[in-house]
From TrEMBL:
The gene is rimP. It comes from Actinomyces bowdenii. It is found in: Cytoplasm. Keywords: Cytoplasm, Ribosome biogenesis. GO terms for cellular component: cytosol. GO terms for biological process: ribosomal small subunit assembly; translation. This is Ribosome maturation factor RimP. It comes from the Bacteria. The keyword Metal-binding does not apply. The lineage of its organism: Bacteria, Bacillati, Actinomycetota, Actinomycetes, Actinomycetales.
Length: 157
């Protein structure tokens, strides 16, 4: 069995400690880090987002964050062997799990599942307690603790 320090989750933890201040210094939020290893090669996926509230992360800011992350990894050299660095956003149809995720999704379409029902609509407001979803049947206010699964959705024309 590999030593704890060599396991992907241990590496992701070390990378999180290293990169949180770097990403924060770029004015962004470090959503998660994933590492995979195949033989001598690794992939380091760094997912970044705006810190809070609605808005979109543009390619210029993503490029600046990528350069800062790459420089920090080059200087600290925490990944053994060769690796590919991927820096991206959570994506247009991201999973929504935290109050911050719902606040970031204000103005966007979402599919929300509670224990009782599945709803689709546009998130018009969100805070630490819940969200308001504008559905075809009218606005629905949902406490976060009732939400079992949610995802932003892109609706077609």
């Amino acid at each position: 069995m590999p030593e704890k320090a060599d396991r992907p989750d241990a590496l992701a933890g070390r990378l999180t400690e290293l990169l949180e201040p770097v990403v924060g210094g770029a004015g962004l939020f470090l959503e998660r880090i994933e590492t995979t290893r195949a033989g001598r090669y690794s992939v380091v996926r760094v997912v970044v987002d705006l810190p809070d509230g609605p808005g979109d992360l543009d390619l210029d800011r993503l490029g600046e964050a990528t350069a800062a992350v790459s420089q920090a990894l080059d200087e600290a050299d925490p990944v053994k062997g060769q690796y590919t660095l991927e820096v991206s956003t959570p994506g247009a149809e991201r999973e929504l799990r935290t109050a911050r995720h719902f606040r970031r999704a204000v103005g966007h379409g979402a599919r929300v599942t509670t224990d009782e029902e599945e709803l689709s609509g546009t998130i018009s407001a969100a805070d630490d307690q819940g969200l308001t979803l504008q559905t075809d049947a009218g606005p629905r206010t949902l406490p976060l603790e009732r939400i079992r699964q949610a995802r932003m959705v892109i609706s077609g024309p």
